Amino acid sequence: MKKVILSFTILITIIVFGQKLPVLKLSNLSDSKIEIKSPTELKKGEICITLITGAGMSAYDYYTHYIFTNDGDIKSFKEEVPKTYLKNPKLKRTTTKIEIDEQTKLKLWNNLNSKSTTEFTGFSQKDFFKPIKIKTIQPPCINDASGYSISFIQDNKQKIYSFYAPEYYYDGKCKNENINRKMLEKFVKLLKLWEVI
């Protein structure tokens, strides 16, 4: 009985959300300093969300792409991307398609249509910092931690958000009066929603 209810719920969700992808508040690709590409071509209205972990001393950054299509499907890919500053020709970019089950697809649709996700695209990278002039240069107080990024692409527009060691800074372990803690809190919640951290 539980499987029947779950299947019915998934079917309804795909019918409702599959035809009505949200319209995200994104910028023209030319305005982005860094361009993260979708592993597949996107049709009008389709969305690619890319979750990125820059893992400390690793030679690679790790990308997880979720592509939400107009027909209600979700395609998923994992990529290992050599860090741009490493000039080692032996390091290769690899892409693997990931199969995801219906229950996970339902969760991903809910994540996409959540208030946390849709509202976050109204912010920009500069919102992580307060527009104040600090009196002293504040040195980094952590190293070998992971940095996290999330990219949204829709209709040839994109926004990318990045922060190094966001939980560490949010927990107040690193004092920096320039950081907008409310924005950082929203980012940490978004990363947890998408199960990046």
Summarize the structure in words.
By secondary structure, the protein is α+β, with helices and mostly antiparallel strands. It has one domain (2-193). It has helices at residues 2-19, 102-112, 115-120, 166-170, 181-193, and strands at residues 27-28, 47-55, 60-68, 74-82, 94-98, 146-154, 157-164. It has a 7-stranded antiparallel beta sheet, covered by helices on one side. The longest helix has 18 residues, at 2-19. The protein is globular. It starts with a helix and ends with a helix. The relative contact order is 0.19.
What is the secondary structure topology, with strand pairs?
Blueprint: H1 2-19, E1 27-28, E2 47-55, E3 60-68, E4 74-82, E5 94-98, H2 102-112, H3 115-120, E6 146-154, E7 157-164, H4 166-170, H5 181-193
Antiparallel strand pairs: 1-7, 2-3, 2-6, 3-4, 4-5, 6-7
Briefly say what this structure is.
This protein has 197 residues and is of the alpha+beta class. It has helices at residues 2-19, 102-112, 115-120, 166-170, 181-193, and strands at residues 27-28, 47-55, 60-68, 74-82, 94-98, 146-154, 157-164.
